[in-house]
Amino acid sequence: MTPKIWMDFDDFCACFTSIIVFHNPHGYRHRDKYTELK
Predict the structure, then answer these.
(1) What is the domain range of residue 26?
(2) How far apart are CA 14 and CA 25, in angstroms?
(3) d(C-alpha 14, C-alpha 20), whole Å
(4) 1-38 pLDDT, tens digit each
(5) Burial 10-20 (b: 16+ CB within 10 A, else e)
(6) How far are the Cα atoms of 5, 10, 18, 20, 31 from residue 27, in angstroms, in the given order?
(7) Which superkingdom is the protein from (predicted)?
(8) Phi and psi torsions of 24, nearest 5°
């Protein structure tokens, strides 16, 4: 069981000035399909 670490939001912004999000849409099983109904 991993211990939960709570951090203040201001401290979080000071420590991590930029957050890099890696997005790979082909790596997920769930894919959204959009259809247009007329």
Answers:
(1) 1-38
(2) 30
(3) 15
(4) 666 777 787 877 776 666 666 666 666 666 566 666 65
(5) eeeeeeeeeee
(6) 29, 33, 24, 17, 10
(7) Eukaryota
(8) -125, 95
Question: What's the CA gap between 19 and 13, in Å, rounded?
Answer: 9
- Whole-number Å distance between alpha carbons of 29 and 14: 35
Helices (H), 1-38: 9-15
Domains in the chain: how many in total?
1
Interatomic CA distance for residues 28 and 38, integer angstroms: 30
- The verdict on pTM exceeding 0.85 is no
Amino acid at 8: D
